[in-house]
Amino acid sequence: MQNPYARYKEQSVMTMTQGDMINLLFDEVINRLNKGLVSLEQNDYEGSNAHFKKAQAIVTHLSTTLDHQYEVSGGLASLYEYFNYQILQANIKKSPEPVEEVLPMITELKEAFSQADKQVRMGHTG
Hints:
Layout: H1 4-14, H2 18-41, H3 45-64, H4 72-93, H5 97-121
């Protein structure tokens, strides 16, 4: 028999809106980047590599799932590409600066998505 909490989590993921899912993905990117920075500080390069690679995988997923019928998608694709480049640079150089540069941008983008999602849910498009 499946653990009730595991079943709840599975069910909640299956019933999420697209906005909820994007928020969750951004939260995980931010979480992984912060953990990667902590690992770098502790000279745990294996740990930072794992966290940064996971963050990159999520950013790549966000990029590949863009709906290119919307004009904003081109700009988002470029941003995601830049985020991944900076994460890669931090990972290669074992330097926090590239991630420290994009972390506020990613956080700001998450907030913008969150606000847009709230407006859509409330029926306001303008």
